[in-house]
Amino acid sequence: MKPSESNQYRDLLQKYNIQKLYLEKIEKRLKVFEDQLNRMKKERVEIKDKTRKELIKSNEIVARDILIKQMQFELKKQKDITSLYNVQIQRDQELETIKSTDRFPVIVIENFNKKDIDTAHKEFVLRGQVVYFKNFKYSIPALKVLIDFGPKAILNVDKQHSSMLNKHKIIAKNIEPQIHSFFGSIKISDLE
């Protein structure tokens, strides 16, 4: 593992842990505010003769209700962020596991079309990567986009289209990778 990858992983793990602590704090505060709101609502029903206090508490209830809605929104947002960190950590761990077993990671893309290729490039950066298409149906526009992104190798390509990729110094193989949760993998010797 490169030092920069280790630092990135450590930073990501630290962000994840900080995010979890922040979520716990928000959940505790939300519970306190919800309890306060419920108490205030009960008190408001019981106190009938103190109009001024009633008005103050009513305003406070509205303010707390608004605050609770804002905190619920923030809590949902933070949970989504935490979930994204968790997925990224799992993906990084899977990548490290693949690399540690003398296998080469493979980017798995559903279809051979411009949209799927572009999406995969934004997520993984395809330059120098091994790419596998679950559904390879030849398309010139998709091929041009793929060649521009410069992957190292393409898997699941028939012989007819292999020569065109080889002209652009892209290895073309008709082999199936082992599929994992986020990546696929092949033996390093399969690329030779």
Tags for this model:
six-stranded mixed sheet; alpha/beta
What does this structure look like?
This protein is α/β, with parallel strands linked by helices. The protein folds into 2 domains: 3-96; 103-191, no CATH class. Helices cover 65% and strands 14% of the residues. It has helices spanning 3-46, 51-100, 114-124, 140-149, 159-167, and strands spanning 103-111, 130-135, 153-155, 171-173, 178-179, 184-187. It has a 6-stranded mixed β-sheet. Helix 1 packs antiparallel against helix 2 (51-100). The chain is elongated and about 90 Å long. The mean pLDDT is 86.
Largest sheet features: 6 strands, mixed
Strand order of the largest sheet: 4-3-2-1-6-5
Q: What helical percentage do the residues reach?
A: 55-70%
Mean pLDDT over the residues: 86
Number of domains: 2
**Overall body shape:** elongated
Strand content: 5-15%
Distance between the termini: 23 Å
* Class by alpha and beta content: alpha/beta
**Radius of gyration in whole Å, from Cα?**
27 Å
- Parts with pLDDT < 50 across at least 5 consecutive residues: none
The SSE string, one letter per element, is: HHEHEHEHEEE
| SS field, number of helical segments | 5
How many E strands?
A: 6
